[in-house]
Amino acid sequence: MVKTLKDHLIDTFDDMTQEYVKKFKSKLCNRSQEPRVRRGAIEKIKDSLDLTDLMVDTFTSIGAVTVTIEILQAINCNEQAVSLSKATEQTGERGSANVTPGNSSAPSNGQQFIDKHRIQLIERVRNVDAILDELLVKMIISQEEYDKIRSKSTPTEKMREIFSGPMISAGNAGKLALYEALMKSHPPLMKDLGAQ
């Protein structure tokens, strides 16, 4: 049976010593990017399953893996970070996390791509509804945000709204989800931008 992203997260947390789990929770609690995790939620965690559920509920499955890798690197659990990155790349559910030992701020290629090509994406993406559908399914945006963005009259306005709202509140998880939605709905555009 093929393991899910959640299974890989549970395995990663199970392999960590109690000391490193404590450091992980502390770093997670002090994380400044949105969405943030409240101290009360972290204090309720009893085991690896609880921690995984909290991560997935907060960041989505894909985002949870990305944030976990970032925190693992920050607390010098580089072996676990590399192992999780390799294991989750094979599921086909997420892009390469660009993990290198000792590099605590290595964002995924997808996140870098979204940051780098923001202006071109706002100007050139046409099928925004397909992207909104993906972001809604992955719970990056709410139904209210979905309806608000869809009500905009042009694709450019819709994309601008995505970047000014959900991409700010969802942080890295949102950028990764947007990247994956664009790869599905606009492969020629993504290939063109990727070649720049």
What is the fold's blueprint, element by element?
Layout: H1 5-15, H2 18-29, H3 39-43, H4 48-74, H5 78-89, H6 109-116, H7 118-124, H8 128-137, H9 143-150, H10 155-164, H11 166-185, H12 187-194
Helix pairs in contact: 1-4, 1-5, 4-5, 4-11, 6-11, 7-10, 8-9, 8-11
Give the rounded overall mean pLDDT. 83
Level-2 CATH architecture of the largest domain: Orthogonal Bundle
As for the CATH topology of the largest domain, it is Death Domain, Fas
What is the rounded Rg?
17 Å
Distance between the termini: 39 Å
Oligomer: single chain
Q: How many DSSP H or I helices?
A: 12
What level of helicity do the residues show?
over 70%
What form results from the Cα inertia axes? elongated
Number of domains: 2
Helical/strand content category: mainly alpha
Q: Which stretches of 5+ consecutive residues score pLDDT under 50?
A: 90-108
Beta strand count = 0
Strand content: under 5%
